[in-house]
């Protein structure tokens, strides 16, 4: 089976399984940066696939139940757009999809248990944060507005819980939950993690959600919080060795969480750490071969 990745400016992102590389650079966008590549872990080879219709930055890519990939929006100096497109895994080509109702970047896109996609918040022109949300139906190729979040959110996280609800964390003092059944948002009874953004959120084997690091009060944070959906409570656990943001985090088969790279007080980071849920502690491990930020990791 092949594994799709696409270029977000100069960032390679693996969308489905397998091991892969991540690459970044500071070049301005060119036509080459709309290309897609397929990585085959069996042969350890890359092949060029179809190109997207435009380059994108701070967009989302969501694997649909069909095996196709939905890419939405764009932000930053590339300009904000509502346009979407779909990668057809059977043909290796991209085709247009219905546009969102609002141009946005820095948003989230979460595949719901229904097979639909929930897009939340983000930023639009003049860097205004959004509270608006919408749902994409891949069968009908149609976007439908849903209830706004209780507050505007951008560069936040969205995590699908085992209940089918979606947890939002951000630089607001409280977190919130979306219920696809009622199509309504609610604020968590207990206060969410300390206000910060550019975090990551990883679901543990216990179904608890680990929210890691980020930017808090204009400073890099190493704070780690755990949300327990069964009790609707937050607990602050051991801090990271190195505060960071724009890192990645991934659940390993062992149940531990691997955090890699990002940006910290010492600029871009190559450092990596492991979180052990049994001890609630972080441990520094070997560095990556290069510093990386806004990259991806895939198990």
TrEMBL record:
<dbReference type="InterPro" id="IPR037293">
    <property type="entry name" value="Gal_Oxidase_central_sf"/>
</dbReference>
<keyword id="KW-0880">Kelch repeat</keyword>
<feature type="signal peptide">
    <location>
        <begin position="1"/>
        <end position="20"/>
    </location>
</feature>
<dbReference type="Pfam" id="PF01344">
    <property type="entry name" value="Kelch_1"/>
</dbReference>
<keyword id="KW-0732">Signal</keyword>
<protein>
    <submittedName>
        <fullName>Uncharacterized protein</fullName>
    </submittedName>
</protein>
<keyword id="KW-0677">Repeat</keyword>
<dbReference type="InterPro" id="IPR015915">
    <property type="entry name" value="Kelch-typ_b-propeller"/>
</dbReference>
<dbReference type="InterPro" id="IPR006652">
    <property type="entry name" value="Kelch_1"/>
</dbReference>
<dbReference type="InterPro" id="IPR011043">
    <property type="entry name" value="Gal_Oxase/kelch_b-propeller"/>
</dbReference>
């Amino acid at each position: 089976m092949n594994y799709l990745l696409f270029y977000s400016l100069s960032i390679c992102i693996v969308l489905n399984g397998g091991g892969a590389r991540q690459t970044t650079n500071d070049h301005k966008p060119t036509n080459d940066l709309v290309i897609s590549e397929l990585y085959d872990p069996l042969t350890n080879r890359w092949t060029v696939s179809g190109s997207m219709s435009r380059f994108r930055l701070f967009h989302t890519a969501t694997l649909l139940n069909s095996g196709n990939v939905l890419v939405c929006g764009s932000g930053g100096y590339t300009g904000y757009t509502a346009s979407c497109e779909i990668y057809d895994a059977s043909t290796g080509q991209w085709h247009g999809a219905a546009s969102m109702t609002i141009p946005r970047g820095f948003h989230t896109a979460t595949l719901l248990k229904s097979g639909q996609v929930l897009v939340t918040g983000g930023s639009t022109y003049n860097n205004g944060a959004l509270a608006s949300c919408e749902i994409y139906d891949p069968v009908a190729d149609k976007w439908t507005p849903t209830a706004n979040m209780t507050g505007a959110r951008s560069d936040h996280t969205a995590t699908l819980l085992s209940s089918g609800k979606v947890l939002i964390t951000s630089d607001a003092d409280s977190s919130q939950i979306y219920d696809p059944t009622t199509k309504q948002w609610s604020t968590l009874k207990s206060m969410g993690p300390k206000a910060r953004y550019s975090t990551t959120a990883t679901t543990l084997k216990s179904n608890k959600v680990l929210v890691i690091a980020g930017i808090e009060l204009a400073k890099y944070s190493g704070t780690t919080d755990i949300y327990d959906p069964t009790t609707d409570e937050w607990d602050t656990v051991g801090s990271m060795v190195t505060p960071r943001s724009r890192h990645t985090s991934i659940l390993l088969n062992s149940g531990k969480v691997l955090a890699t790279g990002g940006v910290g007080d010492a600029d871009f980071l190559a450092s990596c750490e492991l979180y052990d849920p049994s001890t609630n502690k972080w441990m520094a491990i070997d560095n990556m071969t290069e510093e990386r930020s806004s990259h991806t990791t895939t198990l």
